[in-house]
Design goal:
single chain, 221 residues, mainly beta, Double-stranded beta-helix, six-stranded antiparallel sheet, 19 strands, 48% strand
C-alpha cells in the first residue's frame, strides 16, 4: 500500500493498493475510489466497541481485478497522521481511527485505574491499534508530539490527548483548590501522562469547539 495525504484543514488520505489488498475503515469515511474496489461490511468489531459508543461494523475495501485506489476523508478540521504499529501498539481517543491496512488490529482499551475509570470522560475508553502495518488517525487541529522520559509526567486537559504509545501510563488528577475549581473554567479533572514513550496532543478537540459554540445555539422558540 502506498499513500498520499492531500489537503489542508480538511485533509484526505489517498491509498493505492495492489490486487487483493484490503483497507479497513469506519462507516462513512470513504470519499472516492476506483470502480474495482469491492466493499464488504464486517461485524467483527465486538461488543466492546459498542460499549465504547462505536459501531461494531467496519467496512473492508478490497481491490479486485488489478490495482485499486481509495481515499478516506477527515470528519473535522485538523490532520490525518500515519502511524506504523508494527514495532509498538498505540492507544488513541476513540474517535481518532480513520482507516488502516487489514493487518492492523483495532480493539477497545479500558483504563485500569479507578480514577480514570470514574472521571476520565473521553480518556476512559480509548482504542488500541496493534498488529502490523500502517493506520491513519485523525488529529483535531494541530499536532504536538512530546517524548516522555521514564517517570517524566505531563498534565493535559483530557480532550487534548490524541494518543500515546502503549507503555505510557495514564491517570486522572483533580484540580487543586476550591477557587480554582469554581472560577478557573478548566473543569474538575486533568489527565496525567507518565513516560516512557511518545505522546500526541491535539490543539482543537471537538469537545472544546462544541463547548465554545453551545451558548450561541438557540434552545427554544
Amino acid at each position: 500500500m502506498q499513500y498520499e495525504i492531500i489537503g489542508g484543514a480538511f485533509p484526505v488520505v489517498e491509498c493505492r493498493v495492489a490486487q487483493g489488498e484490503s483497507m479497513i475503515t469506519e462507516r462513512g469515511s470513504m470519499v472516492w475510489m476506483s470502480p474495482n474496489m469491492e466493499m464488504k461490511t464486517s461485524g467483527t468489531g465486538g461488543l466492546g466497541r459498542m460499549f465504547a459508543g462505536e459501531s461494531i461494523f467496519q467496512n473492508i475495501y478490497t481491490s479486485v481485478n488489478g490495482a485499486g485506489l481509495i481515499a478516506f476523508g477527515s470528519s473535522f478540521p485538523g490532520k490525518i497522521m500515519p502511524i506504523d504499529v508494527t514495532q509498538r501498539s498505540w492507544i488513541f481517543q476513540k474517535s481518532a481511527f480513520l482507516a488502516s491496512e487489514a493487518s492492523v488490529s483495532l480493539s477497545v482499551a479500558f483504563r485500569k485505574k479507578l480514577g480514570a475509570g470514574l472521571f476520565g470522560g473521553e480518556g476512559f475508553i480509548m482504542q488500541r491499534l496493534s498488529g502490523s502495518g500502517i493506520a491513519f488517525v485523525e488529529i483535531d487541529g494541530d499536532l504536538k508530539e512530546i517524548v516522555l522520559a521514564p517517570g517524566q509526567k505531563i498534565i493535559v486537559d483530557t480532550g487534548n490527548v490524541a494518543g500515546f504509545e502503549e507503555g505510557v501510563e495514564m491517570d486522572i488528577q483533580t484540580v487543586k483548590g476550591v477557587k480554582n475549581v469554581l472560577f478557573g473554567g478548566e473543569g474538575l479533572f486533568n489527565t496525567v501522562l507518565t513516560g516512557p514513550g511518545r505522546v500526541w496532543l491535539q490543539t482543537m478537540p471537538i469537545s472544546a469547539v462544541a463547548g465554545a459554540i453551545r451558548p450561541f445555539i438557540p434552545t427554544g422558540k
